[in-house]
């Protein structure tokens, strides 16, 4: 895990919830202090929920500045999930207290942000602390949001599946239909096989 150029104010950015059937896509951006190191921090998908929740207050306290932003299902349906993911990253960058000198983006797609140089890095959340930190912020924020939505629609068990297309979630969609929080542009259920006579 690297910290990139310690002489620059580097912002890492990442998103969570891109493959979900319901709820927002959430992104975070964070600038860590030079020399930041944490033995637990790595890609949020490789961390347990407990580890992510342990890291959250550490990152919020140690960060030079950070931002988190949701893009909700209505907007996702209008502009598609890729554009919504990038928009969420831009909005999280907007929340930083100053403009970074470089942006490190997890993945391979991004749109220029305020003429700041950026680098897209495949599996960047496993390579750079700032991207890994952004992934933890995005994941914990989105999970907390989905747990709140669970209270409104407990039959989908979003407290557990967080809106991802698990068998349990899809069976609930089959039984109860779609809510206002489902992404209508997504294929909510697998295509049915048609028996031809």
Provide a compact summary of the structure.
This protein has a domain at 10-146: Ribonuclease H-like superfamily/Ribonuclease H (Nucleotidyltransferase, domain 5), CATH 3.30.420.10. By secondary structure, it is α/β, with parallel strands linked by helices.
Kindly state the number of beta strands.
Answer: 5
CATH class value of the domain at 10-146: Alpha Beta
Q: Average pLDDT across residues?
A: 92
**Helix and strand element order:** EEHEHHEEHHH
Structural class: alpha/beta
Assembly type = single chain
- Read across the widest sheet, the strand sequence of neighbours is 3-2-1-4-5
Shape: globular
**Which regions are unreliable across 5 or more consecutive residues at pLDDT < 50?**
192-197
Strand content: 15-25%
Helix content: 25-40%
Task: Summarize the biggest pleated sheet.
Answer: 5 strands, mixed
Radius of gyration: 18 Å
Number of helical regions = 6
Please explain how this structure is put together.
The chain is globular, with a radius of gyration of 18 Å. Strand 1 and strand 2 (25-31) form a beta hairpin. Strands 3-2-1-4-5 form a five-stranded mixed β-sheet, sandwiched between helices. Helix content is 37%, strand content 15%. With 197 residues, the protein is α/β, with parallel strands linked by helices. It has a domain at 10-146: Ribonuclease H-like superfamily/Ribonuclease H (Nucleotidyltransferase, domain 5), CATH 3.30.420. The chain has six helices and five strands, in the order ββαβααββααα. It has helices at 49-62, 73-79, 81-94, 129-152, 158-161, 167-176, and strands at residues 10-16, 25-31, 65-71, 102-106, 118-121. Helix 1 crosses helix 4 (129-152) and helix 2 crosses helix 3 (81-94).
